[in-house]
């Protein structure tokens, strides 16, 4: 049976969510690859594959840590989370990057955070961890507790270590090194490209 890394790698290639080239990240770093999980929306089979894997792992963590709500921040994680929440029959909220100045104002969309609510905070990938820290802030300010931060892919650029340094538990389905190694083994990526990416990761 294929491992998680190979299943995710196949879904990324099939949906074209994994891009190769030169990409400037939010942190300012230039990367030889980019992962855009919004492309899963155009590949229903790949979307279902990722959602089901995420749901399986989140179900385990929820039982262990007595989690009662899920959360994410716009945009990428928020595209997947409602479907994951539906599969698990769990309520979810979305944290806006900025407060709305009209209608239902504030940064929390989809519900309210009650003091004592226990959350898994979900997102697509982690790089340095800044967006996760920013996303969980309004939840904690409202009295919610972040039991775990869950991402599909760890880019292995210090985000996990930074979050753990701050006292948070990070769980990832897989890492970029595992994905690239899986693609190389399956003959779905040139060895020169795989070497470039793996060396890039080691330097981070």
Radius of gyration: 17 Å
Helical residue percent band = 40-55%
What is the structural class?
Answer: alpha/beta
Elements, N to C (H/E): HEEHEHEEEHEHEHH
* Spatial gap, N to C terminus: 32 Å
Strand count, sense and closure of the main sheet? 6 strands, mixed
The unreliable regions are none
Let me know the average pLDDT.
Answer: 95
Order of the strands making up the biggest sheet? 5-4-3-6-7-8
Secondary structure: number of strands = 8
DSSP strand content:
25-35%
- Helix tally equals 7
Q: Can you tell me the overall shape?
A: globular
Description:
By secondary structure, the chain is α/β, with parallel strands linked by helices. The protein contains seven helices and eight strands. The chain has helices at residues 4-15, 44-65, 76-88, 130-141, 159-165, 176-185, 191-203, and strands spanning 18-24, 30-35, 69-73, 92-100, 106-109, 118-126, 145-154, 170-175. The chain has a six-stranded mixed sheet with strand order 5-4-3-6-7-8, sandwiched between helices. A two-stranded antiparallel sheet has the order 1-2. Helix 1 runs antiparallel to helix 2, helix 1 (4-15) packs across helix 6 (176-185) and helix 6 runs antiparallel to helix 7. The radius of gyration is 17 Å and the shape is globular.
């Amino acid at each position: 049976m294929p491992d998680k890394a190979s299943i995710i790698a196949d879904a990324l290639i099939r949906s074209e969510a994994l891009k190769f080239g030169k990409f400037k990240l939010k942190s300012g770093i230039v990367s030889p690859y980019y992962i855009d999980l919004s492309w899963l929306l155009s590949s229903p089979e790949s979307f279902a594959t990722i959602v089901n894997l995420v749901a399986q792992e989140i179900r385990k963590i929820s039982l262990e840590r007595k989690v009662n709500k899920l959360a994410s921040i716009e945009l990428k994680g928020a595209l997947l989370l409602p479907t994951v929440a539906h599969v698990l029959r769990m309520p979810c909220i979305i944290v806006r990057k900025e407060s709305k100045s009209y209608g239902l104002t504030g940064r929390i969309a989809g519900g309210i955070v009650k003091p004592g609510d226990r959350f898994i905070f979900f997102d697509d990938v982690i790089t340095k961890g800044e967006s996760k820290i920013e996303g969980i802030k309004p939840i904690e300010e409202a009295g919610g507790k972040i039991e775990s931060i869950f991402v599909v892919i760890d880019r292995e650029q210090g985000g996990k270590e930074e979050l753990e340094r701050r006292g948070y538990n990070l769980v990832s389905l897989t890492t970029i090194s595992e994905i690239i190694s899986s693609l190389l083994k399956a003959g779905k990526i040139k060895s020169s490209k795989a070497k470039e990416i793996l060396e890039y990761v080691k330097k981070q």
